[in-house]
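Project standup — Tuesday

K.O.: blocked on the structure for the chain from last sprint. Re-posting the sequence here as requested.
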Amino acid sequence: MFKFFCRRIVLFIGFIFFFAAPCAGNDPVLRLTTDTWPPYSIGREGQALESGYAFDIGTEVSKRIHCKFKADLLPWKRVLACMEKGTYDITFPIQNKPERKAFMVFTNVIVEDRVFIWHLKARKDQLPGWQTIDDLKPYTIGIVSGYTYQDKMDQAIENGFIKTEKVNLAEYNFKKLLGKRFDAFLESESVVRSFFQKYPEYSKQITHAPQIVSKDLFRIGISKNSPFADLLPEINRVIEEMKGDGTIDRIMNR
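H.V.: unblocked you, prediction finished:
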């Protein structure tokens, strides 16, 4: 009986050590980096992230695993480089892509966001009623550099089947569309809604085709070179807890 009790104590201490190790010390910090992409991340690249879904979700996760939280905005290519090197611990939002698995592990899905093709309401051609990738061949579509869409769409963009124009920030696509510099752009529904709130005049001129391009399944990516990679099961537990108690919904509906 005594040996059994000691064994249980050892296992319990080991469990606590496993989940607390990355947060040990005087100033435990969960470090997040992402790029500027309202409403997920609001601010200027090169500065601290202080608002947006990524900030709110990162803050809540760090609180529940008993760590402090630090977040910075960087260009997307640098974000991925930091994940590879372990300069930062996590990034959000991000999709689980095969090429990223070499240097990151991914949590359960936190947010599901639909992607549409957005165009001017005044269009009277076939674009608003597109159904297949072939239907998009006559048009020029705006995209954000470094972002990925549904596999078939990514392939069509990569091989040049669809003509595209790249921008570094999503906001530029709105301005280019209103200036009739291309036919349409690809974007997540929540991102466009955020811009409609900020610029109500956009909603009077821009709409989306009914066809869904893809569904972005956004997760937290954790650098394999971060000690927090070992906490993936615990972070997943926290994420499911946040879904269950309504925290994720409250953040996304602010």
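K.O.: great, moving the ticket to review. The two ends are 54 Å apart (CA to CA). The domain at 112-215 is CATH 3.40.190.10 (D-Maltodextrin-Binding Protein; domain 2).
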